[in-house]
Predict the structure.
Amino acid sequence: MSRTALESRRAFAEGTVTATELVETCLNTIERHDAKLNVFLTVADEQARRQAADLDRRRDAKEPLGPLAGVCVAVKDLISTRDIRTTCGSRILEKYTPVFDATVIDRLKQADAIVVGKTNLDEFGMGSSNENSAYGRVANPWDLDRVTGGSSGGAAAVVAADFVPLSLGTDTGGSIRQPAAFCGVVGLKPTYGSVSRYGMVAYASSLEQIGPMARTAADCRAALDVLAGHDDKDSTCSRTPLKDSSWNQSLKGLRVGWVEEHWTDGISEGIAAALRSTREWLEGQGATFVPVSLPHARYGIAAYYLLASSEASSNLARFDGAHYGLRANVKAEGRSGNGLEQMYSQSREAGLGPEVKRRILLGTFALSAGYAEAFYGKASRVRRAIQQDFLEAFQDVDVILGPTTPTEPFRAGEKVDDPLAMYLADVFTVLANLAGLPAISFPVGFTEHPLPLGAQLIGRPFEDRALLDIVERFQDDTDWHLRRPSSLNS
Amino acid sequence: MVDYELIVGLEVHVQLNTQTKLFCGCSTLFGQDPNTATCPVCLGHPGALPVLNEEAIRLAVVTGLALNGSIPPVTRWDRKNYFYPDLPKGYQISQLDHPVVGGGYLDLPAAEGQEPRRIRLTRAHLEEDAGKSLHDETSGTGDSRIDLNRAGTPLLEIVSEPDLRSAAEAKQYLSELKLLLEHLQVSDCNMEQGSLRVDANVNLHVMVDGERVATPIVEIKNLNSFRAVERALEYESQRQLAAFLADGKRIGQVPKQTRGWDDAAQITRVQREKEESADYRYFPDPDLVPIQLAADWVESLRARMSHRPAEIRQRLAGDLGLSDYDAGVLVAMGPACIAYFEQAIAAGGDAKRVSNWLQQDITRSASELGVTLDQFPVPPAVLGELVARIGAGEFTTAQGKDLFQHLLSQGGSVGEAAEAIGIEAVDESALDELCQQLIAAHPQVVDDIRGGKAQAVGAMIGAARKIDRNADPGKVRARLLELIQST
């Protein structure tokens, strides 16, 4: 079992291991095993080696080291990295290299973390299985024939397979938590506005956040401490700091909300059983369970797909072949001919995948004159109603526990032809995005297969640390997070 | 003869006077090399996010107050979605239903023998400008080039109600609006640089059998000078009348048409019918937060209202005693002129005299030197002193002009200039003494003057010049007549 992020930091700082050794081990693992998983779209070996050498020199010179010094981090390829290709899993950005770093990358570098590469994803973050990548699907390390979930499938698999201890994902409707559950790792979607979105390629700006994925809650906390905080470059990034948690010693008195429908609505028996034992463990710690109601939750998926697609139709308009990225080989004929129209449509036809086109069409329709009120307008009202539901629920409880996904990881290809079934994989996760709340998925058991099972905790705004503390207590007492897949041992 | 009325509403796009763009830190300076004043934000790079330049909000609110509009407690951003190569994000950040300014009006100063006119305003909203497309029409290659320096520059779109009734009135509205924006220093309104662009919505109300019939509304774009606005409206009014007489089509019976003004041909041409036009799919921009406009902050900006042309005219004509005409001319000369005027007055210059200097010598010299008044080589305090001392009789008007020329080329103070060109300021007591001496020496002339022959004074002036070479004939004459007739 390789080191966690915090263990890497400690070992490096104490001189047990050099940053160069940490990076070489990581690059070597990628080299040997990634063909099976297809996680990395770009390996930043040169930059990583350079940074490691610099860190080793600085440690030898006894210079101060950042809180993630020496920690190898994989970054979802939706987050801009200066001088490292950023494809967003799309053909249209196959050759696009950003000229600037996302704020989170700046902060990782400030903290002396080492970005080793960019991970595979559903194109532009649109998908729940990582099968929508232009660069092929990612295999689930627990069963290579099954999906990792999505859209941060690569970022989840890379941690599950022990390539790196820490990765960054993005979560618009569950894209961190659902693959975290499918791959048996911890994934946190922070409170909306607590982490800067600057440099994350936008899919649905009002819903999404960057968040950490790791084997342990403690590693996620270390990453969150580096990532969170106001950024002048993102107007939606809050000045409210994350709150300190009161659950870092004991969970006695914790009130856990329990949404009745979420425990019965077609969730698999394995997940129901794992949730029951999680509940028992929490009760054993002195937590009490309180039934809560989210009457509008059942409209969540519909509202989510309307809002997210509407924003996507606008956010993705810039990928038109005119300024960067793929341009179809059409001779544009200025204003007179229809060359311009052809250039647009052929570039987008060739550059964007079917799911992205589906959502652009859906969003364009939802915003079009005469329909905007019935679709976008109504979905916005559902969103406010769901926010209100949570506000009321959190009067009586501190957190809400439920399943992350209705089922364990499904087989690759099983749902690709049924977009609606695929969308329902997000039924429990989209609520936190619609309401802007922090939510975490963590491993709570395995099927006999074994396939990992995840539970989700949703918290009050800016109480992200409470979620991490609860999961950390759970991990102190259980060993689900210590189990590793055997698929790569051969 | 058909009886009809021209109905015009104008949309004026004003580039606000900010140092940097609306949502990024790039310079708004005109004339930089193509695509150099750009960054990931205004280039629409993936992942880049807009951050509001609050100065643009301040300028918009000042304008809104000056136009008597209402400033809402909250204003919000929307995306207007359409594809064009000079719009790198594929949408423009604009304001749909929570604009920064609601309503308002602009009063047009009454011309001779006319009623004053109040033009109502619909709204004013902020938006970012697009880049510039340069289409190569000559080489035959069909190449188009894009300059994104202008992309993201803040624009305030001021929309009037259809209250304008003639091409001349539209021009007058634009002139008064431009003056207002210049005096508030909200925009430089440089039309050649595209800082002020106009679209017009035009139709006719034609009297048919005693009934008022509205013709279809046409939007005219590309109006890049006041003259173009005037000519386009004149042209369009004739064209629409002819069209109505030919086909009788009324408003609502044909789709709204967009026409472009072709300045070379002096005609409007069809650009598109509304049916083909884009559905902009407006929705609130999720990258920006609504802006709270605190009431006390808005109130604090009312202090700027003293810079409105109407207020300045009133101050100049009412408080400082200029004629309405002179007040109007000075205001029309712009804010630098008013600042110069006010500083010259503060230095002791008489308002009327300073006004004359400004309208004549200073304007001429500034234009010869190719400088604006804020760079004019004779500072307003120096001119004020010069004018004051001429007024006090220390220098003759002719000497004043000599001194002005010297100050213009050499700089320095009035005293230094007088010394340099050998002019001694006349002391008033010396003038009195000289005149008493002359009166005593020429009793006959004095009698003639008292007898009504004022021209007889000439003889004494000749004598005065023999006593004092520097004596100002005009002053000697005036003082002599005053002394003789008062006794």
User: Anything to note?
Assistant: The mean pLDDT of chain A is 95. Chain A is about 40% helix and 15% strand. Chain A touches chain B through 52 residues (CB under 8 Å).
